[in-house]
Amino acid sequence: MPTTASYRPSESKPAGHRPVLTFVREFVANPTRVGAVLPSSKRLSKAMLDGLDIDGAKAILEYGPGTGVVTDQLGPRLKPGCTYFAIERSEEMAKVWRAKHPGLKLFVDSAENAVELCRQNGVGEVDIVLSGLPWSNLPVSVQTGILEATAKVLRPGGVFVTFCYHTGTLLPGSRRFFRRLPNYFSRVTRGKHVIRNVPPAFVLKCTK
User: Fold this and answer.
1) pTM of the model
2) Which residues are CB-contacts of 140 (< 8 A; sequence separation ≥ 6)?
3) Fewer beta carbons below 10 Å: N end or C end of the chain?
4) Domains located in the chain, CATH noted
């Protein structure tokens, strides 16, 4: 049986868990994996969640939650019976995320393995996939692997939501990503532009 989400916000801030500082350190250590020097803003996080049927979702998956800015907005809205888990590559950011969201589940793994992780957690299909991954920095094989896994786990009519930085739209990695989206989704729409983010970004919503 799938394990449903149980949101319990942390009642304290454990010593040493400074989300922004951890994010900056990870960017310095792995700039191509992290993709930005600062976490996404609250405005960008809210823009990603705008219009999504979170109340009706039975399963939600999050890729690359980092220190949990999107999860901060999503967690309190998760309904009883909804299965949620996140996939994060960085051990250090996972520690911060887990300290902030003790009632939710996170795997230190690659989003390429989403199908297997869903299977292990008793999830057949996912209604919503949220992504904070730096697509312009990912190799072609990794982009393809994640998109294929996402298409497999999303139910028909399910939504994949991600964002892109305006500064990265002309990079080869971003152009490859944009070209591939129609291969996996029936509709791709560019949503809100969030200027007050570092760097400025826009939301992409892709429907299977």
Assistant:
1) 0.84
2) 176
3) N
4) 19-207 (3.40.50.150)
